[in-house]
């Protein structure tokens, strides 16, 4: 079996073509740098998800390996993210310790749903999420995550009993006097240090600098990139040292299960004690119904994140379906190793890119580093101060708050600010799911409103042979069911207020690309309605598609159409030469209209 | 206070202007003819709604009076309809006799919701209901109503315990051997007679016929129009006669409360015995939550029906808001007289029209006839055979099944057949509400899909000065968030497969009427992406609105645009004269692209 055939099954195999020592070294450096980021983030995000710290690391190694085998974009790194951890946290708090089982099952089911999305080509669903919704959603998530870390940051004990944004904030405010000074100092200090270290990498070394200067520049960059790991390591050392001297200045992370995760099926049943001591048994169906909408929303959010990253770094060469399969298998296989839901991390992918990664194989080195930590470093994890982990999370998420879009939106599209606001407020006050869905719903409603209310222009025109007519032109290219009434009313109003009398109306279809049955029927009955008032309706330049729909829908009652101005002129001349005759025929019809069945016929065809 | 001022408050007062004796006679004849239709229909529809027959009549007199005072279209008659009776029936079956209270409260609340719709201009919501959805929905309703009457028609006793279409049909089939021959004979015979009588009115009397012939023609028309009343009267007489002789050949309607309805507040609490004898007490909140989605759906269906009729008969002169207020007050005031939800009836409005009604005052005469029947005829109502009432309903609803739209839809727009099918099947198998909502949802999804996947055309063009470029033209006028990815992918694919090399791309915006923030950002990042491959993107003829959004969204990164072909030529000449210089600058940039931050910058702006 040649490499070509292998590549059909494992697209990642192509990375092995010409995998030189230089590539290996680049990937190794990038992999380790990403590892130094994912270690503290993984530990922090798993506490954010309401789980013991090791679960963040369990989630951080499979993604890299799977993506190396299946992925198409070298920069992407898959692992735990703040957003998915937050969404997972809703299912880990039941009765205190319901924890890992529901989270791991969610990971497995998310993978399955992503696989389904890949096969049904449902990845396009993320197209429905506009930038304003994304902005509102991620900003709200950042605020919620930030708020959830305030307690840890300030060393406040206890729980508000509700993970909502408002109740978390008010709990922190009410307990502010109970904060632990040492933890608060460590927390606030850590954030300050992290933000300063983050700035370091913006210091540019000039091209023509000395070698020493360049080395120093490189060192600064490395410190800046590994700042989370350095901070956690350093604060843990302090805590360890204090502990050896019998002191406990900080609230620590607590016990961590040592060693590698065991491989077993994802949990399809679980039991956990409630706070009052009774043990709850949950079967598969109970667990699925507890997970509820998360089973659909976690995959959509995961895909949204992943698509954004692979698009951002991969440009045009990325196969969306292939990416979806890689993401799906990262979750499915991960769930066998007690992973929580994972997706591409924007911040770590940027680190990966900046570290000069050459192929996704870098992810394997990241995974190896994570496994090494699990194997050998777990005894030291319990000494990590919680305030330091909170600082890691907060200084990561504050850059997700996108206040800077408000100004351009205010300048150019205020309507969309409403979408941002609705998504943000509902995400904060109700839940991120409701916020996201409401934002999409509002956007879609505006889209429908746009097609329902096409702008019509009315012009008084004259043909070359000086026949006057009213030209009605819809500015939109879709003419569908919600617009029928609007167009009909618009034309009727225009007839009432027209400057000069003319009983010829030309409806310009040259821009109309699509017409549905309801619209075709609407045009048919408009024609009849106008005919009853002896006004002539003619369509100008309908496309073949439009003609087909009109012909099929209206049968005998088809509306006259012409393809260009010349034909229009000809038809008008015919009509006006017959006008007097017409008048004689039409006038008595109009007289007896009340006793006539024409109106009823007309009626039933409008909306029977 | 002059007539003009009165008209501002009561638009119906204008009908009194020049209300001649001739108008009076016309309205009286039409009013009584409609009365002869609404009497049997009202009795039948109230049993369809699961209530005693008198409630149908309680619902049949207020609408006419209110509409005479407030309505704007002389043909409209407001009263009980089969569709609303069916929707009401869901709330009358609780424990057997929960009946009238919930139905009357539903009438009151529907009126309030309609008033709200009038003030918020939400009447436009019915624009969302396309013809295919209407067809599927009314056909399904007709089938459900028809099925629900089979038991009565065949004299089958008992109940399937479930009012769904499938369970009703299977109950009738399983009990078919228990049918009562006399009832079945009466039922099937009645339908046959009604259908034949219905045909009578199509017999046209020639214009030049003798007076006798004309009289005979008029008589036939009257018999045809009053066929329901004649049938019910005749079969009741037979039943009454048999009863006097101690025989009971038919299942009868049962006791009817005699006399006019009392006027009192709509019920805000109720109690009723369950089948096991326990009495259920319901407060206002309980009742509202029991009515649930009906509180929104009944008004929407009512408005849909009413709009269709007033549009059909009133043409262009009808004020939709005014109609909505009339409908709303018919329900609100009606609920004080124990009415169930009412709306315009298409069949009775057609009778009204055909009877030569001149003003809505005809509705007052209909109301008077209904009150007269309640006052003096109620002692005879119990003798109405149920099979005859079922026949009245069935022969009314079979014409609501609109199989004839299938052929044109198949010919010209098969996609919309899916909407018909979905609405029909879900209405039959789940519920009419779910069917309706799913149909609207599917239509909206297709509408969004259309804006999400604009057709792009790609042409290889040449300017007058023989500079070659690729012209990209979207066929649609809306360029919004769901389309961004599609356009970007389309252009990238087109670049890959282009016949001749050119690094100039012109995006034709002349048809684009609207652009949102997401699309503007998308164009901005497309431009950067293309620039990285040294391809130039230029917009042709964007409108001022589009320019504004682009400028606001992209700030420094604005995309070059030109207004016509001449400007295009000028720009191209500049570009091509600099091309060699450009190549020298761009080539090395492309070499180092991997280590460059350009891609990240690009990335974050796509979907950060």
Automatic annotation (TrEMBL), chains A, B:
<dbReference type="Pfam" id="PF00916">
    <property type="entry name" value="Sulfate_transp"/>
</dbReference>
<feature type="transmembrane region" description="Helical">
    <location>
        <begin position="55"/>
        <end position="73"/>
    </location>
</feature>
<feature type="transmembrane region" description="Helical">
    <location>
        <begin position="387"/>
        <end position="405"/>
    </location>
</feature>
<dbReference type="InterPro" id="IPR002645">
    <property type="entry name" value="STAS_dom"/>
</dbReference>
<feature type="transmembrane region" description="Helical">
    <location>
        <begin position="218"/>
        <end position="240"/>
    </location>
</feature>
<dbReference type="InterPro" id="IPR011547">
    <property type="entry name" value="SLC26A/SulP_dom"/>
</dbReference>
<feature type="transmembrane region" description="Helical">
    <location>
        <begin position="21"/>
        <end position="43"/>
    </location>
</feature>
<feature type="domain" description="STAS">
    <location>
        <begin position="479"/>
        <end position="551"/>
    </location>
</feature>
<keyword id="KW-0812">Transmembrane</keyword>
<feature type="transmembrane region" description="Helical">
    <location>
        <begin position="291"/>
        <end position="309"/>
    </location>
</feature>
<dbReference type="InterPro" id="IPR001902">
    <property type="entry name" value="SLC26A/SulP_fam"/>
</dbReference>
<keyword id="KW-1133">Transmembrane helix</keyword>
<dbReference type="GO" id="GO:0055085">
    <property type="term" value="P:transmembrane transport"/>
</dbReference>
<feature type="transmembrane region" description="Helical">
    <location>
        <begin position="119"/>
        <end position="145"/>
    </location>
</feature>
<protein>
    <submittedName>
        <fullName>CLUMA_CG015202, isoform A</fullName>
    </submittedName>
</protein>
<dbReference type="GO" id="GO:0016020">
    <property type="term" value="C:membrane"/>
</dbReference>
<keyword id="KW-0472">Membrane</keyword>
<feature type="transmembrane region" description="Helical">
    <location>
        <begin position="362"/>
        <end position="381"/>
    </location>
</feature>
<dbReference type="InterPro" id="IPR036513">
    <property type="entry name" value="STAS_dom_sf"/>
</dbReference>
<dbReference type="Pfam" id="PF01740">
    <property type="entry name" value="STAS"/>
</dbReference>
<feature type="transmembrane region" description="Helical">
    <location>
        <begin position="94"/>
        <end position="113"/>
    </location>
</feature>
<feature type="transmembrane region" description="Helical">
    <location>
        <begin position="417"/>
        <end position="442"/>
    </location>
</feature>
